[in-house]
Write the structure tokens for this entry.
Amino acid sequence: MSTTEALLAASGSGGGGSNRVSIDDALALHAGEFGRWQLRHFVLVTAAWMLEAMHTMVMIFADREPAMWCPAGDGRCGDRCAGAAAGWEWEQGSGSSTVAEWGLVCGERYKVGLVQAVYFAGCMMGSGVFGHMSDSFLGRKGSLQLVCFLSGGFGLLTSLSPNYWVYVAFRLLTGFSAGSICFCSFVLATEPIGPSYRGVVGTSTCYFFSGGIAALAGIAALFQSSWRILYIVSSLPSLAFILVVVPFVSESPRWYLVRCRTDDAMRVLREIASTNGKSIPDCVGLRLDDEDDIIKKVVETSSVLDVFRSQTMRARLMLLVIITFLCSVVYFGLTLNVVNLKINLYISVVVNSLAEMPAYLVTAVLLQHFGRKPLTIGSMLLSGVFCTTASLIPNVGAMRVARMACGVVGIFGMAGTYNLLLVYASELFPTVVRTVALGCKAQGSQMGAILAPIVVLLGERVPFVVFGVLAIIGGLLVLCLPETMNKPLYDTMAGMEKGERSSKRGDEVATSNSLI
């Protein structure tokens, strides 16, 4: 069957009902926008965010520089850069970190930033691949399952690295797969949720990422003597997720619908309704939001080229990638910059991760009142101001605490931005290209993350200056994006463009009437 015939067949059947409605209407009117089914599904799927947090932030602990000591006594050892040859020893043993095992200090210190940048380069490459697979033949659930399997496997192999360059290769492969976990999970978790709750629930996904960072800090504190064991312990949960969680997760009904599998979409919606204590009448079927034009075209494909064919979508995507890039440099930079704060590493990481959680709560509470755009601008400017302030505070004595406090507020604001951009981006694009667009956004994020470790190496003051300037620029760029609050989640490109034109005309009429 050709794609045209498949679409006509799906369109004509509409799931067997004569009264065809969109998925948003089916959820709002019949199945329930956010009930027991969506809550269970959301928690199970979003738990995957903890996995990406562990794969990403394990570098903070595995690549740390432990303390050195001189067994012969103070002043009796030679140059610290010579390490054991000059009589120095690592306090927790040479196997405590990659830095200690391979001597990544002094002239070799750049290799720490290099492997971290390579990991994010892998994330950037994988985002495009798995974003396309999620929107096309593999689906949301299949893509999430695949990236969890690959990241867990490569994480275990990383623990066996015999030398630095093999370690770099495995971190690249881990990033290639792990970097797609969050956005694959986000789309699968939020697409079955109705429009009234999608924004608030969507901002709750990042709690799991912060929780994963805090949990990793606790695990790392228990395995300070072996970076290899730390990689094993932080990778096994990804494989356990596939066995324990994935079997109880459903595919997105929106993906089923745009892939012309209307009966499967209706089956999921009826399951949602049944679990929520509701029912969908037999006369109700499903329709795409541009069904009026369905006879005139074939099934829309799902690649980034389709986004670039639309002037509106193209401009949005480019802005979104740039803003996310700037946000990522600041967010990951502040997270990795704990090594420059000269405070207990494990405590600093936990404090930073806990500082993110109030940001998610604040954005969730304010989201429905102020919209996506004003909050995103405000959170980026907040982070920029406090990062700039931190650059002016000396890193000595009690002032270290004040500097850390400014950094915490900075990460508070940028964590809120990161959270808001997920919801914002998912509403800026239709279902057929949503994961592709989020994949491009993720690539922008990974490009920023590649730069972040390099910025951290610039010293104690310069990183804060860079973070402050980039955050302010990002906040100003958000002014160019449209507001999406209380707008429908469109299925197709044509449906979105048609709906937005109608909405714009309605706003103009309302404005003119108010002036009269």
Observations:
- Strands lie at 19-21, 68-69, 89-90, 284-286.
- The chain has one domain: 22-66+91-262+301-501.
- The longest helix spans residues 399-428.
- The CA atoms of residues 52 and 178 lie 6 Å apart.
